[in-house]
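Module 6 notes. Inverse folding takes a fixed backbone as the condition and produces residue identities as the prediction. Think of it as a translation problem where the source language is geometry and the target language is the twenty amino acids. Below is one complete input and output pair. Work through it position by position during the lab.
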């Protein structure tokens, strides 16, 4: 039996090979690669994936791919003729995500079974095998449409509907989009055409189509533009504008997200490959020296194993993920942890720290969690000084307001972590809408150093040198472009830093001085240069300060012809939400590696700011997502850095005229009305963990405080979905707050604590989810009213708390802990041995 199977009766090609290496190809058909043994490293549209045994991936028509340096393996390849595939689905353009190496949320057992059965049926050639094989091919296409479609071209005649009125309406909507997609149409335009409200149309379209209006429109535009891109020599700008994209930037952004390359690079690779293929009649892969054909008999056991997989699963199984975790409760070398994340909390801007409501919120946080330092900015802003003259003179320095703030911090056992820069108050509201509250007190370097010197002297006299020696002083480097982007010139910053460092260290040698508030996403390209300049000038940093916000910097270029001979290339930078769920850990690992390679001694690294978004009006800030996000990031980076400062403690710091609602998407752990948000409860759970780490992993952590008392946190983190990461952040309606995540699947964790002392254990469980502890969901239950009254606020304060359960488990050396987590849910278990 040959490893290459072709049959003119069937629209399929079947290959069974050992693949070591495969040169770059442009896929002409729809190819499924199924790893039966070993692994392969595939580069698909410039993204690299490692496929191990049982992994399945779909390489679609037009995809660029190659396989490099793979180890011993056995790979089943089934190619379905593209024309047959497209005719069968009766859609002009549908896109599928079928890659089990990165997509754990799909059920791939049906696909594995189907691919194995196609190979099995065709190879054994039993009676009517061609008909059976064709039925399996149709079934495979059905599975793709049912479970793996991410962009759908709706065809009403291929679906059943209980209401013909809806069929006619959705057909009319889709028809309108296809007729006008090349125009600058909006949801409002389509709604007007259908005599509907935009809100109703948005919900209706999502329900009927399984995809949002904007996602469908952009993907349809992309499908039409891509055809012209490959088949014509028209300019990319012409193609983009012709097919409805508002500009080249928008076209590049969406194209890059789908194909991980620019339209120009994609076209060039397609053209080069076509030139190569024009001279070849046969699939060159069968003659590659790094591809070894395998007979069916050599793979029969693997084929039978997967062909026997039971495909049918219950509805509950399809909507949940089961995970079993084995924990050795007494491992060798238990690691003691200091929970360095508790070293820092941001109160925001110094002037806001004088407000009584913010002070109350910070007091509540401190009573529960017990942070060590409070970081604030703008200490020398106009609002923090009292003076008469237009220019502050030495004799007019008045530190009363600063004293009041620091006195308050000491009253709740917090020490100052002071950002000394002339940093403006900034509120990012949505997309490119940012409000700057620029500090008008601009001083030259000499005046700034003089002011700092007087402040340090004043602080020593007031608080004592022992206390001031424990303070942290940070100097943030302002960006050279758009306030945050560096340009590689560090002279001014480093000169000021040297002056500040010298003044502080001469007066308080043990105080910590550092900076520059490095943002790894927008300024990583300059980080090595910055360290090199620090090394060259022999400047000492007591700590490196870093801000972590999970974004991807997208830079689009556009050529504008200014005359007949000169072309000016313009660049525009965009920050889009990162698709990487482990963003913080990856960036911090890279920073540590660069510092090590630079051979510069920086004793401490402090994440002085982190959050899931830079926006003060992002819905994720109010929902249970934030609880899972905080829990995941603190556990992932536990004690990896010297502090992990959440930005920031209270919504009070972000109040504007639009803050009339109970919730408005601000970053605080406490709402402006003093109601604890899910992020607050996550911190409270984390503060209950013990100081000895037993085990941790994705979705859980196990600690202990004493010999027979243990603490467990489990969580079900859901990252932002693919489409949310394609565009700059924008405001959402209340009913869309939970629509921006990858899925809603439950996570069922069965944890076995092994080696535990025999006896009876008291288990106290805290449950934080949408039904227990979510201020947003409770507010929605009250119809999201904006004229909320005091008694209603008091009511929400009482009910917006995690649910508590107490139960007992008898252990015979092993204790089973079950945690059934909905999306974004966090559980805390306090396990206490009961003495008799």
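Target side of the pair, the amino acids:
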């Amino acid at each position: 039996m040959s490893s290459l199977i072709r049959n003119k009766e069937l629209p399929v090609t079947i290959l069974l090979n050992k693949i070591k290496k495969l040169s770059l190809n442009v896929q002409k058909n729809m190819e499924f690669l199924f790893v039966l043994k070993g692994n392969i490293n595939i580069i698909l549209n410039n993204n690299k994936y490692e496929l191990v045994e049982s992994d399945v991936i779909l390489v679609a028509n037009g995809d660029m791919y190659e396989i490099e340096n793979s180890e011993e393996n056995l790979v089943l390849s089934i190619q379905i003729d593209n024309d047959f595939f497209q005719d069968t689905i009766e859609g002009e353009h549908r896109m599928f995500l079928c890659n089990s190496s990165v997509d754990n949320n799909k059920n791939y057992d049906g696909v594995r079974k189907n691919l194995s059965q196609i190979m099995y049926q065709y190879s054994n050639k039993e009676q009517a095998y061609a008909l059976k094989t064709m039925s399996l091919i149709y079934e495979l296409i059905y599975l793709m449409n049912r479970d793996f479609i991410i962009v759908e071209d709706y065809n009403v005649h291929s679906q059943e509907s209980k209401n013909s009125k809806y069929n006619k309406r959705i057909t009319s909507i889709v028809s309108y989009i296809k007729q006008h997609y090349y125009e600058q149409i909006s949801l409002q335009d389509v709604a007007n055409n259908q005599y509907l409200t935009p809100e109703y149309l948005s919900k209706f379209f999502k329900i009927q189509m399984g995809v949002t209006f904007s996602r469908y429109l952009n993907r349809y535009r992309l499908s039409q533009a891509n055809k012209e891109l490959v088949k014509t020599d028209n300019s990319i700008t012409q193609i983009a504008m012709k097919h409805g994209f508002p500009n080249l930037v928008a076209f590049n952004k969406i194209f890059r997200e789908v194909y991980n390359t620019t339209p120009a690079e994609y076209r060039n690779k397609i053209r080069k490959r076509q030139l190569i293929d024009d001279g070849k009649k046969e699939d060159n892969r069968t003659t590659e020296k790094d591809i070894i054909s395998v007979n069916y008999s050599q793979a029969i056991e693997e084929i039978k194993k997967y062909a026997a997989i039971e495909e049918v699963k219950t509805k509950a199984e399809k909507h949940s993920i089961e995970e079993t975790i084995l924990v050795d409760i007494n491992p060798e070398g238990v690691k003691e942890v200091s929970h360095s994340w508790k070293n820092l909390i941001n109160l925001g801007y110094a002037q806001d720290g004088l407000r009584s409501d913010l002070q109350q919120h910070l007091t509540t946080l401190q009573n529960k969690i017990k942070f060590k330092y409070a970081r604030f900015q703008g200490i020398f802003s106009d609002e923090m000084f009292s003076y008469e003259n237009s220019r502050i003179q030495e004799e007019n320095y008045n530190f009363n307001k600063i004293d009041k703030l620091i006195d308050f911090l000491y009253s709740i056992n917090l020490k100052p972590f002071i950002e000394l820069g002339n940093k403006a108050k900034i509120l990012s509201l949505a997309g490119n809408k940012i409000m700057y509250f620029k500090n008008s007190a601009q001083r030259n370097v000499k005046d700034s150093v003089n002011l700092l010197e007087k402040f340090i002297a004043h602080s020593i006299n007031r608080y004592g040198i022992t206390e001031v020696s424990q303070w942290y002083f940070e100097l943030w480097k302002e960006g050279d472009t758009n306030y945050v982007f560096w340009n590689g010139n560090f002279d001014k910053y480093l000169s000021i830093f040297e002056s500040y460092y010298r003044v502080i260290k001469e007066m308080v040698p043990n105080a910590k001085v550092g900076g520059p508030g490095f943002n790894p996403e927008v300024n990583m390209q300059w980080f090595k240069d910055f360290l090199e300049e620090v090394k060259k000038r022999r400047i000492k940093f007591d700590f490196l300060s870093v801000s972590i916000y999970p974004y991807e910097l997208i830079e689009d270029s556009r050529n504008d012809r200014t005359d007949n001979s000169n072309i000016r290339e313009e660049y525009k930078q965009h920050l889009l939400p990162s698709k990487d769920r482990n963003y913080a850990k990856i960036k911090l690992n890279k920073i540590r590696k660069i510092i090590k390679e630079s051979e510069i001694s920086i004793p401490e690294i402090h994440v002085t700011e982190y959050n899931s978004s830079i926006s003060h009006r992002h819905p994720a800030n109010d929902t249970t997502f934030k609880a899972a996000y905080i829990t995941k990031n603190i556990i992932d980076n536990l004690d990896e850095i010297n502090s992990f400062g959440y930005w920031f403690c209270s919504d009070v710091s972000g109040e504007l005229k639009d803050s009339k609602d109970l919730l408005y998407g601000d970053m605080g752990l406490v709402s402006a009305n003093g109601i604890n948000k899910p992020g607050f409860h996550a911190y409270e759970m984390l503060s209950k963990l013990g100081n000895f780490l037993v085990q941790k992993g994705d979705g859980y952590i196990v600690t202990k405080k004493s010999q027979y008392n243990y603490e467990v946190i489990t969580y079900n983190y859901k990252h932002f979905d693919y489409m949310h990461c394609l565009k700059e952040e924008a405001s959402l309606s209340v009913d869309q707050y939970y629509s921006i995540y990858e899925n809603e699947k439950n996570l069922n964790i069965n944890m076995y604590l092994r080696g535990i002392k025999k006896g009876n254990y008291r288990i106290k469980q805290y449950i934080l989810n949408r039904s227990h502890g979510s201020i947003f969901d409770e507010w929605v239950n009250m119809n999201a009213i904006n004229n909320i009254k005091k008694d209603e606020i008091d009511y929400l304060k009482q009910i917006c708390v995690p649910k508590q359960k107490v139960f007992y488990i008898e252990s015979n050396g092993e204790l089973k802990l079950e945690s059934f987590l909905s999306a974004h849910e966090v559980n805390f278990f306090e396990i206490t041995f009961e003495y008799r």
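Reference fact for the lab report: The two ends are 71 Å apart (CA to CA).
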